[in-house]
Amino acid sequence: MTVRSFPRHLYKFRAIPTDPDGRRKLEALLLDNTLWMADPESFNDPFDGKCDYELTLRGAALRAAIEQMMLRQGMTNADIRRNQRVIDDAVNNPRDLETKLAKNMDTIRKQLGVCSLSAAPRNPLLWAHYARDHKGICVQLRPAADIDALPAIKVIYQDEYPVLRNLDRDDVLQRAMLPFLRKSTDWAYEQEWRLVAPDGPNTPRPFGPGALSGVIFGMRMSDDDMEYIRSLMDQREARYGQRPVLYDAKPAVRSYSLVICRAP
Fold this sequence. Notes:
This protein is an alpha/beta fold. The protein has helices at residues 20-30, 59-72, 77-82, 84-92, 94-109, 124-130, 172-177, 223-240; strands at residues 10-14, 34-37, 52-54, 113-118, 137-141, 153-154, 156-158, 163-165, 182-184, 192-197, 203-206, 212-217, 245-251, 258-262. It has 2 domains: 10-49 and 112-262, no CATH class; 52-109, no CATH class. A hairpin with a 6-residue loop joins β13 and β14. The chain starts with 9 loop residues before the first strand and ends with a strand.
């Protein structure tokens, strides 16, 4: 049995919206225990999810791979014999087949929802980019409290797109997920972990109440917004009998960094 390894905590940075719709979305996280599985097209990095597809097999090896793929898809040997003309065309025109396979994989990728988390709650850039210039919050989650709902996977940073090759036996969904688990090394400071699921983009993903273990207040957070979050935590405690720990992000002494300490 494979044992998956997670950080003790992962974090979701959020601004404090002022409009009713934005507040409902924030309260869905803090009160209803749901994470938003976003459409990757909405991400700020236009390279996110990019990949290359490469079909290197030719001749008899390509024919054998196509027939094995058809068998995995539930076709019988008789079906394969009836489709020899289609197989011959694919073997004789591998570039056309490569284009079709790439388009099919792109279609599958568009059916995935993605939620980005981080293992770096003290990174000032994350606060600036995703918590409205340190005026928002950082929500602390414990994946181990609900592994089925929070099966986060660590993002690997590299300089080139991932390459999906040939008609291998890997699960199609796993292959479709791969491009969303690779990013440019320019983003390595985010220490990102992701939830990637076939539930579809723009859908909520519920998790157990015990998985939300803390909320960190940003350095520039207003008193009114702090009071709003505290009121949500009061409601949460009444609803679930559990109150996440509240923390303050503060500037470190003599360094451009943050320290996280328990809020009074």
